[in-house]
UniProtKB/TrEMBL annotation:
Protein name, per record: MarR family winged helix-turn-helix transcriptional regulator
Residues in coiled coil: none
Cross-referenced PROSITE patterns: HTH_MARR_2
Domain HTH marR-type: 28-161
Organism of derivation: Pseudonocardia lutea
Amino acid sequence: MAARDPLPFDPIDRAAKLWAERIGPSDTMAAVTSVMRVQQILLSAVDAALKPHNLTFARYEALVLLSFSRAKRLPMRVMGERLQLHPTSVTNIVDRLQADGLVRRTPHPTDRRATLVEITPEGLERLEHATKSVTAVDFGLVGLDAEGKASLFDLLGRIRAASGDFR
């Protein structure tokens, strides 16, 4: 999965030791830097798995969200809220998905100001194949068993909740 040969040492651990010597306690810096590096590793693995399907993770997430909705469609505003994206970002994602024939926009039946985004049969098929690809690489989350993944989810959830990400 690594695009290059691994380093013979952990640069974050080395930076933490130097931080502790020169600045002060390094536990927070080391933890945050590790999370940021793991995010890069995961995104790289997921992007590589999705590339053959002509999808980015953002577009993949949008397709998953639409497929999970009962009617396979949602207002763009709701998509933005659930994906935690700015309306402009949602518009760009939907534009790309629509250009590929994976979603279609339809007028909202009761709110003239709203637009619904609906996943197409082609979108569902592409999503199925893409999901097989990302699950085949375990979304890039290697090195953890089921218990480790549950612990990680719990720890990250605590940070998200404390930061006001959800109630």
